[in-house]
Amino acid sequence: MARREIPYIKILFVCFVLSLPIVNPTVHGDGVGYYAYARAILIQHNLRFEEDWRHANKFFSAARLQADEQLRPELYTPTGHVDNHFTVGPAILWAPFLILTHLVVLLWNGVGGHISADGFSQPYVVAMALGTAFYGFLGLLFSFLLARKYVRDRWAFLATVGIWLASSLPVYMYFNPAWSHTHSAFTVALFLWYWERTRGSRTTGQWVALGLIAGLMIDVYFPNGVFLLLPLIEALLAHRDAWRAGGWSSQRKLFFAETLFGVSLALAVLPTLITRWIVYGGLLKFGAYTAYDWIWSAPHSWQVLFSSDHGALSWTPILTLALIGLFTAPRNARVIALYLGVGAAAFYYVIACYPYWDGMASFGNRFLISLTAVFVFGLALLFERFGRYFHDGARAFVAAAGLVILLAMWNAGFIFQWGEHLLPVRGKISFREMIHNQFFVVPRELGTHMRAYLFKRKEEMRKIEERDIQQMQKSAAP
Known about the structure:
By secondary structure, the chain is mainly α. About 65% of the residues lie in helices and about 0% in strands. It has helices at about 10-20, 30-45, 50-55, 60, 90-110, 120-150, 155-165, 170-175, 180-200, 205-220, 230-245, 250-280, 290, 300-305, 310-315, 320-325, 335-355, 370-385, 395-420, 430-440, 440-455, 455-475.
């Protein structure tokens, strides 16, 4: 009798559904700018963000509003619009959830209900948060599908769960859902999965689809454009092979497919270009992103990974294992591992050049959440290699699962410390203090705060923001 295959995708889906109660329906910080694109277009049918800035959380609005509740004059661009340099991509992805919610609210009010149809009321924010969690799950699912093609399903599954629970992803998938990072993880994972799936035998229609996915990936987060290196390298190698074969007809076919890819990419990026034109008065004007002093010598390359100021590897050590895994690829996965490594290295370089590389109030390095699919792939490769040292596959899985559980528990405790401001959320932290808290403070306080989060969430969020404001005032004091 054949051994029954374990339904890993169903298990992932069940885990996702069970995790939904911890979704935090809130819009604050950078999320105000991202959500403003969705709300203003849906409710006001324009890109006037004044009401979004007025309804923002206290920390965000305090620096932007005058005593008369009017926005500070310097916040306006030459076109008369509020300076909103955040991307429109998340709004595109939220659109199905928010449009459906808006219709339901209007229907409810039409039969006597009393829900504010302004985009700020709870149904809209809940829909946004659930949409973000859904895209986070899809990103993990596409990461799993990419990895399982090169390793056994159990290792792809375990790697997916590991990155899900032991990286920075859960903070932005559940607790800060209005930020763009979860959507970025989804679009990059979708792009990499589809690129790999069609590589080498891509039809004309698939080139068009890949271009549309690539454009959406850039709409969500501009640095994701570095992953265009993958089809570029692929195309250059294909042209080389066609040149060697001496077939001009093959070259023409390649040029035609690449042109379609470029056209579909440009069409998909139109929402970004249009919003830049309206808000800033130019298709290629990106607000603060182009005003910052980027340093292209990548001066922060070490800090991005190892700094106590939100270093990716120092805060989320499971990523170290994932990066090591890319160098342990078996023969059948070496080409893909090399491609993914090139894309990840290019993305890392861009972040190392960014003046705010630490993400300010970030948990770990939030920018690298875009690389979720790469991390899942690398971790799966490492687990596959690890399993070869065991004669019993079940024992290998249990050992690797135990490591994932430990790292997930460590990450959960760290997230709790960060969320409750037991450590500074901006700047460097003391790892000595963090480790002490992990063993002596978190076990004592976690239960109480989790009950407050689940049953008195609004009050708990208010207290957290007050602590954030106090920390900022304390750090700003002479």
